[in-house]
Design goal:
three-stranded mixed β-sheet, oxidoreductase activity, 496 residues, binds copper (II) ion, metal-binding, di-copper center containing domain from catechol oxidase, single chain, 16 strands, Di-copper_centre_dom_sf, 2 domains
């Protein structure tokens, strides 16, 4: 049985594709030589060719940067290290051939497996966490808990401003190791943080992942990165992140129990229940003002427990049905004041119907505000593990909208969206580069799907009555035929 175990082990490892893309940079490229040469094309294979070029896996190429104009929210030029991502750090990276993938082309693109990445991988099926077997749920929660302490196998993050990335008179860039879950938090923080301009001068009208069309594509990539990391960590290539249907109305959070994502601590209502495995989790990247004033980046230092004094009310099921009826993906100015925009309705800056109302907060935004603590502050929200479940559900609604509207890249704005949000902008801070276009495709092409039944939109319920009349007549004819067959069969049996 030892041999069988080894065979099973080898099989499982062969099925796991190394991380497709993560952020900020692969450890092998976080070196003085790589940073100075602006090139991240790791050597691969026996011959040691960059990006496995000798084996036909990929090649080292110039990174394509989106040059189309962006919206007027961000007016500085050449100041923020996230502009024209990732040019400030690297201008050459691997581009993999066929279905090969990963920062060095040693793995497969999402959804593919095998030595040559020619076999479709069974999709990871994301389920409602309330409908999972206790065993599956425990497996998910255990893996998630382990990811909080397991150092990320491949990626590191910068802990200082770009200017100070390589301190004077040294050849040691300022990168640090970070755990898998904390990387997930850091990536979110880095994409929303202010432009660092010195004490009291942060430029705040900048956000590469919210208040624009990239909101849904960016968070899709964010979740995919974590899901892939957890597949590798757990050794289960079909591992899927579950979702929380937060559109249940009222002010009762059904997943907020110590068995699931943590209940309330009876001694201190702001903290998680003492029996929750998340009660000891500490947050990172919380002190945005301190980072701004000291021109520093979050370095993963722990800053106290998760705060979740949930009090507000949750979105209603009809809100989901209503936002699914909005026809346009996004509308000018492709921002948080867009009207008749599906993205803005789902993000929650307009009525679910798409009608713009400045004060309103619904759907995704309302689910965050409901948490009222760590999960309610954009830059720190990913610290609360419920963030994962809120965003998988948001992504499930996005997926449903894509299906119902047969969406293509033509539905996504190519230019004039806020910085970071144009169709071909490389999403910050993922590496190797991946664009909003790359995520604006059906999820089964990315290796996952949802076991979800979202409410039909009112448009479908309002189908012309003559269609229902035809359906009714057909139904009656079929039913009558069945009855006749059944009666005849019974008669024949009796005659025997
Ligand atoms: Cu977010």
């Amino acid at each position: 049985s030892v041999n069988v175990n080894i065979v099973v082990c080898v099989f499982v490892i062969a099925m796991l594709s190394p991380l497709l893309v993560s952020a900020q940079f692969p450890r092998v490229c976080a070196t003085f030589e790589s940073i100075v040469s602006h090139e991240c094309c790791p050597l691969l294979g026996g011959t040691g060719s960059p990006c496995g070029e000798a084996e036909g896996r990929g090649s080292c190429v110039d990174i394509t940067i989106d040059d189309l104009p962006h919206g007027q929210q961000y007016v500085l030029v050449g100041i923020d290290d996230r502009e024209r991502w990732p040019e400030r750090f690297f201008n050459r990276s691997c581009v993999c051939n066929g279905n090969f993938g990963g920062f060095d082309c040693s793995g497969c693109k999402p959804g593919w497996q095998g030595d040559n990445c020619l076999t479709r991988r069974p999709p990871a099926i994301r389920q409602n966490i309330m409908n999972m077997t206790q065993e599956d749920r425990e497996f998910f929660l255990d893996v998630l808990d382990r990811s909080k302490t397991a150092v990320h196998p491949d990626y590191v993050v910068a802990q200082d401003h770009y200017r100070n990335l390589i301190p004077e008179n040294t050849t040691e860039p300022n990168f640090v190791n970070i755990t898998i879950y904390d990387l997930f938090v850091w990536v979110h923080y880095y994409s929303v943080r202010d432009t660092l301009l010195g004490p009291g001068q942060a430029y705040t009208a900048i956000d590469f992942s919210h208040e624009g069309p990239a909101f849904l594509t960016w968070h899709r990539m964010h979740l995919l990165g974590l899901e892939n990391d957890l597949q590798v960590l757990s050794g289960d290539p079909t591992f899927a992140l579950p979702y929380w249907d937060f559109a249940i109305g009222g002010s009762e959070c059904d997943v907020c129990t110590d068995e699931i994502v943590g209940g309330q601590n009876p001694e201190d209502q702001t903290l998680l229940g003492p029996n929750s495995r998340f009660a000891d989790w500490e947050v990172v990247c919380l002190s945005l003002d301190w980072f701004n004033d000291n021109i520093k980046l979050c370095n993963g230092t722990y800053e106290g427990n998760i705060d979740r004094p949930a009090v507000q009310s949750l979105p209603e099921p009809t809100d989901v049905a209503n936002c699914l009826q909005v026809e346009e993906y996004d509308t000018f100015p492709f921002f948080s004041d867009s009207a008749s925009s599906f993205r803005n309705a789902l993000e929650g800056y307009s009525e679910p119907s798409g009608e713009f109302d400045e004060g309103v907060r619904t759907l995704h935004n309302l689910a965050h505000l409901f948490l009222n603590g760590t999960g309610g502050m954009t830059h720190a929200s990913a610290n609360d593990p419920i963030f994962v479940l809120i965003h998988t559900f948001t992504d499930a609604i996005f997926e449903e909208w894509m299906k119902r509207s047969n969406a293509t890249a033509a539905d996504y704005p190519e230019e004039d969206a806020p910085i970071g949000h144009n169709l071909d902008f490389n999403m910050v801070p993922f590496f190797p580069p991946i664009t909003n276009r790359d995520m604006f495709i059906p999820s089964d092409q990315l290796g996952y799907s949802y076991a979800v039944d979202l409410p039909e939109s009112l448009a479908n319920e309002d189908a012309p009555s003559f269609i229902w009349a035809i359906v009714g007549v057909f139904g009656f004819v079929i039913l009558a035929a069945l009855v006749i067959v059944l009666v005849n069969t019974v008669k024949r049996h009796r005659q025997r």
